[in-house]
Q: What sequence folds into this?
C-alpha cells in the first residue's frame, strides 16, 4: 500500500521531496490514484504522461530529485515485472532511477529489509558535483537462513 502512495504524494509535492523511495509499489501508468488498479496496472508505462507528466522533462526531474529508488522482490512477480518495466522506460527517457531487486523474496518483510539495506546508505552518502549519490559499493545483504 505505501509504495504506490509514495509515488503519488511525492509526484505532487516535489517542492518538498528530493528523495523518493518506493518499496514493492504498484506503479501505475496513469495519473489518477483512484483509477481501477486492473486497468491502470496493465497500461504501458509512458514517462511522458504518467504521474501527470512528472518524468516528461528528464533534465528537470534529475536536477530536482536526487534519488528515485524503486525496489521489488523477484517473487512478487507482477509488481517486480512492472517496476522493472518502469525503471527501463525511465532510463530510456533520461531519468536515472535505482532499481533494486531482492532475489527470491515476495511482498514480505525480507524484501523490505533488503530494500532498506540498499536504500539507507544512498540517503547518507557523499554526493558528486551534480548532487547525485556516488556509487555505493558493499557486500550484498546477508541471506536469512
A:
Amino acid at each position: 500500500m505505501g509504495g504506490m502512495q509514495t509515488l503519488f504524494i511525492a509526484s505532487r509535492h516535489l517542492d518538498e521531496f528530493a528523495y523518493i523511495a518506493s518499496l514493492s509499489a504498484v506503479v501505475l501508468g496513469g495519473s489518477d490514484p483512484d483509477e481501477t488498479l486492473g486497468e491502470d496496472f496493465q497500461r504501458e508505462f509512458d514517462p511522458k504522461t504518467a504521474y501527470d507528466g512528472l518524468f516528461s522533462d528528464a533534465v528537470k526531474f534529475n536536477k530536482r530529485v536526487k534519488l528515485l529508488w524503486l525496489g521489488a522482490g523477484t517473487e512478487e512477480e507482477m509488481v517486480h515485472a512492472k517496476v522493472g518495466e518502469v525503471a527501463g522506460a525511465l532510463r530510456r527517457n533520461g531519468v536515472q532511477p535505482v532499481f533494486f531487486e531482492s532475489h527470491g523474496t515476495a511482498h514480505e518483510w525480507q524484501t523490505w529489509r533488503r530494500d532498506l539495506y540498499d536504500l539507507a546508505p544512498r540517503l547518507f552518502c557523499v554526493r558528486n558535483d551534480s548532487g547525485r549519490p556516488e556509487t555505493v559499493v558493499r557486500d550484498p545483504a546477508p541471506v536469512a537462513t
Q: What stands out?
A: The two ends are 27 Å apart (CA to CA). Strands lie at 19-23, 67-73, 98-102.
